[in-house]
Amino acid sequence: MALPNNYEAVIGLEIHVQLSTKTKMFCGCALSFGDEPNVHTCPVCLAHPGTLPTVNERAVRYALQIGLALDCEIAPRSIFHRKSYFYPDNPKGYQITQYDEPLAVNGRLGDVRIHRAHLEEDAAKTIHVGSSGRIHGSAQSLVDFNRGGTPLVEIVTEPDLKSPEEAREWAQLLRTTIKQLGVSDVNMEEGSLRVDANVSIRQTGASKLGTKTELKNMNSFRFLERGIAAELERQAAVLDAGEEVAQETFHFDPRTGSLTPLRSKEYADDYRYFPEPDLAPLVSTDQMLEEARAALPELPANRRERYETELGLPEDAARQLAFDAELADFFERALQTADGAEPRTIAIWVTGELVARLREASDGEADPASSKVTPQALAALAGMVDAKQVTTGAARQVLATLVAEGGDPAQIVEREGLAQMSDAGELEAIVAAAIEAEPGAAEKVRAGNPKAIGPIVGAVMRETKGRADGGEVTRLIREKLGAG
Amino acid sequence: MSDILDLTAGQALDRIAAGELSNEEYFDAYAEAAAGDELGAYLWRAQAGSANGAGDGPLRGAPVAVKDIFCTEGIETTAGSRILEGYRPPYTATAVRKLAEAGGRVLGKTNMDEFAMGSSNENSAYGPVRNPWDRERVPGGSSGGSAAAVAGRLAPWAIGTDTGGSIRQPASLCGVVGFKPTYGAISRYGMIAFASSLDQCGPLTRDVMDAAILLRALEGRDPCDSTSVGIEGGVELPSRTDLKGLRIGVPRELSADAEGIETGVTEVFERTLGLIADLGAEVDECELPHSAHGLSAYYVLAPAEASANLSRYDGVRYGLRAGSEDGTAETALVSMYERTRAAGFGAEVKRRIMLGTYALSSGYYEAYYGRAQRVRTKIAEDFAAAFERFDYLVTPTSPTVAFKLGARAENPLAMYMSDYCTVPMPLAGLPAISIPAGLAQPDGGGPDLPVGLQITSPAFTESGLLGAAFAIEGAIGFDARPGGTG
Predict the structure, then answer these.
(1) Position A362 pLDDT exceeds 80
(2) In this complex, do B189 and A51 lie within 8 Å of one another by their Cβ atoms?
(3) What DSSP state is assigned to residue A115?
(4) Chain B residues with beta carbon closer than 8 angstroms to that of A94
(5) Residue A33 to residues A89, B292, B306: CA-CA distances in angstroms?
(6) What separation in angstroms does the CA of A479 have from each of A214, A426, A438, A447, A462?
(7) Residue A459: its pLDDT value, please?
(8) If pLDDT is split at 50, 70 and 90, which confidence band does B383 have?
């Protein structure tokens, strides 16, 4: 259900990106995912007495790259703070993060302004044993410190997003941008990309912001969209009932799609920030900035422009490719292997037919890299379309086969007899037979009704099993019926 | 044997080098002395005969007493707290590792005020330390065990930590040398944190030469401590015998005008100023106008940092875990935190955690922490201005001689005044040394007890400071010994 017309949504996102450094933010333990619990720990990340943090230099470099890619101003000097709270996932009793002097501020990505981006450390993982998976109601809690101390960049947007769809699309653009930088796996299901949303609504046209709520734990793009939509709806219902929206934090349950409020003990609000005395300020030198700039790859916005101007791709396809890292990667690789195929043809087949087939095949997700279709195969197929070796219809059949079982398009065409008919005499004979088989339709066409041609075309197509080019078939029928 | 215990560490090292004394003999003499500790100076002691290894390096296998605030792998390390009872660290502090690399051996772990919070060593969860000059009196704190062990001939030398005076004040009360180097001179890695921006490791020794030898082994940049830089050019062993050409300032606020300063202390201090002038220095009064606010700033900043530093003692990973109430995981968690920390921390530690938590709370931060930081800056500026006119500043180390056990235990403010003269230097990050200057009776009468002279200098001028202290030490000729060690 959409937000009623009399309200408008104001949405900001808070994104946590786990950096793919070799080691943790403040110690030398290896980063890992999926290993046995508590094997990547040391006195520092277990917060033994007397231990001290030291900053991971590569994490700083990665964070600078993110800041630059988001068009932020990089602070010449930024400092770490301690954020205090008691929880077993926080072994020091404080998280080292950045507070009022962050690394990067005032950026922009697409249509959304970036408030800030800063470095911090991730918490350990708590596993609550019990049905809910959350602490209240569970009988026992376990802590895995492997994740504790993983470098994170937190990105906070201004509240510039207006709908759940926009939020999802923009989050995907952000993901692609960071993916392109090569500084994170940005995988939402594995938690290397985590997106929280701050959501409020107000009367359309009002200037004052409504009370916002915070949504957490939406671990896929679809859940992000769904969670925000559900919260907008809830807030509208609250306001419609003449009540006020309370400032709260909600936990999204992916199993039920519902939002439940976090209890206050899980969300203390006086973190007693103060500057971390164990670490010197981070100073970004000109040399560090130059190196970070030099290491920036082509970012989605630039890529989209290049696709349109240099490759002549349609605007939609250029945008779709540029803003989707996996798709663009597939496209670029197909482009490299293509002999003869037009970039435009490849782009249209990748963004159109391929994405549609993949979504059907895998519940809405379209990652060509994990499909059976190789970039070479797609390029070869596009090349055959361009060379009129197969019709569009036949190419669709080939693609369906590729998605289902992979393989080489030329062989599939060969095996299934899908090559476009090139013998004019053979096609003419089939057309003549079709006209004879559909005398009623033929009469109407002769009498000046071009729409009546359908059954005759259909008969030809059936007979040729889609190997004939539709345009050529129509032309031939009309010629024979004198309706040219 | 008593002959060995009478040697300064430097003298003993010379004898070992000359083959006149074996390092095992040296170690065992102290291991046996430590075994007879009646002062409560030690929490853990090495066995006689346990010295092993060649004893290479400049420290030649010499025993060193180590404050129990330094992590020692496999050896119980408690920081004087019940909450760390039985805790055996999985790693060794950089300072202790460096001592070992220089050929030193850990003789024992010394008693201390819990988490270094205290000025009398009465805040130890493992009992007080007695002053070898008068066992009814405190040794000072928080490195009280280290100071008493050195003064009582139970260790040749020791390391301690100083946050607001925790090396210098007990050194003064026990009649030994105590040196707090510039912040950043020695790594803090493995030194259990009290107030991270102030804590600094340093030596407690029989004389200034020994302090220089130990500092040489300890200083240096450590990749595990981002705030460590070491001392550029290293540490020169002192040899100075006069103070010609030097200008010595006497900050009025920390000497004649110091709050609660005892008559005897003032007399010894003034006599020492005369000796300093006799050595050829130009002595003049100066001002550190904001230093009177040092204690107030310190008692906001140090507890604030401590409140965060001590959050890790939560019963989850190591140390004491008090049983929780039955209930859900959530209520059990909160009750585990509350019971563990209630049982594990002593009263003074709890008081400072509360003070610090309050000072950092939303809405109070500016009024307390923010303002205290500005005072800290002002104090540093005062010193910088004074050092434009003077090479060194001298003050009494402690306003009083050693006080009686229990005398200030019920009055935290009176206890805090013990650090009146020593707090401004760590706030400014400066090095400062306390050397024995003479004996004096407490106000109201009593036995003759040691009085310390504090000398301070600009950051990272340790070699010069040790040189000046060496010359003054020679002129004072302090040779009194505690009589009560038996």
Answers:
(1) no
(2) yes
(3) E
(4) 308, 311
(5) 16, 54, 34
(6) 67, 16, 16, 14, 20
(7) 86
(8) very high
CATH code reported for the domain at A424-481: 1.10.10
A274 contact residues in B (CB cutoff 8 A): 304-305, 308, 360, 365, 369
Q: B221, B17 in Cβ contact below 8 A?
A: no
A458-to-A260, A439, A444, A453, A474 alpha-carbon distances in Å: 56, 14, 16, 9, 10
Nearest one of B122, B98, B103 to B112, comparing CA atoms: B122
Question: Which of A132, A278, A279 best tests the B interface by mutation, with the highest count of B CBs <10 A?
Answer: A278
What does the alpha-carbon distance between residue B332 and residue B317 come to, in Å, rounded to a whole number? Answer: 16
Domains of chain B: 2-240+472-476 (3.90.1300.10), 292-371 (no CATH)
pLDDT tens sequence across B364-373: 999 999 999 9
Taking only the tens place, the pLDDT of each residue in A241-280 is: 999 999 999 999 888 888 898 865 445 579 999 999 999 9
Q: Is the ipTM of this complex over 0.90?
A: yes
Sketch the domain layout of chain A as residue ranges: 7-293, 298-416, 424-481
Q: Note the pLDDT of residue A467.
A: 80
Of the candidates B119, B124, B143, B166, the residue annotated as catalytic is: B166
Residue A268 confidence (pLDDT): 54
Better-predicted residue by pLDDT, B34 or A34: B34
Give the chain A residue whose CA is nearest to the CA of B91: A43
Distance CA A228, CA B278 (A): 81
**Nearest-CA distance B356 → chain A (Å):** 10
Q: Is B311–A43 a contact, with Cβ atoms under 8 angstroms apart?
A: no
* C-beta separation of B119 from B165 below 8 A: yes
Q: Do A86 and B337 touch (CB under 8 A)?
A: yes
Contact B419, B164 (CB under 8 A): yes
- Convert the pLDDT of each residue in A310-335 to its tens digit: 999 999 999 889 888 888 889 999 99
Rg (CA), chain A: 29
User: pLDDT, tens digit, for every residue of B91-117?
Assistant: 999 999 999 999 999 999 999 999 999
pTM (2 d.p.): 0.89
Place of tokens 């398009």: A409
User: φ and ψ at B159, to 5 degrees?
Assistant: -115, 150
Quote the tokens at residue A313: 């791709």
B32 touches chain A (CB under 8 A): no
Q: CA-CA distance, A439 to B453, in Å (whole number)?
A: 123
Tokens 């046995």 sit on residue? A36
Min Cα distance B342 → chain A (Å) is 15
Q: What is chain B's alpha carbon radius of gyration, rounded to the nearest angstrom?
A: 21
Q: Report the gap between the CA of B301 and the closest CA in chain A (Å).
A: 10
Q: How confident is the prediction for chain B on average, in pLDDT?
A: 95
The token pair that represents B424 in the structure block: 């401004």
For the cut 70, the answer to whether the pLDDT of residue A422 exceeds it is no
Distance (Å, whole) CA B167 – CA B180 = 7
Tell me the C-alpha distance between A346 and A338, whole Å: 9
Under DSSP, the state recorded for A467 is -
Contact B258, B224 (CB under 8 A): no
The two tokens of residue B253 are 């606020």
pLDDT the model gives residue A107 = 97
In order, the DSSP letters of A392-455 are HHHHHHHHHHHHHH---HHHHHHHHT-PPP--HHHHHHHHHHHHHH-HHHHHHHHTT-GGGGHH
Averaged pLDDT, A399-411: 89
- Chain A positions in Cβ-Cβ contact with residue B69 (cut-off 8 Å): 50
Average pLDDT of chain A is 90
Q: What is the pLDDT of residue B447?
A: 96
Q: How many residues does chain B have?
A: 486
Look at residue A82 and tell me whether its pLDDT is greater than 90.
yes
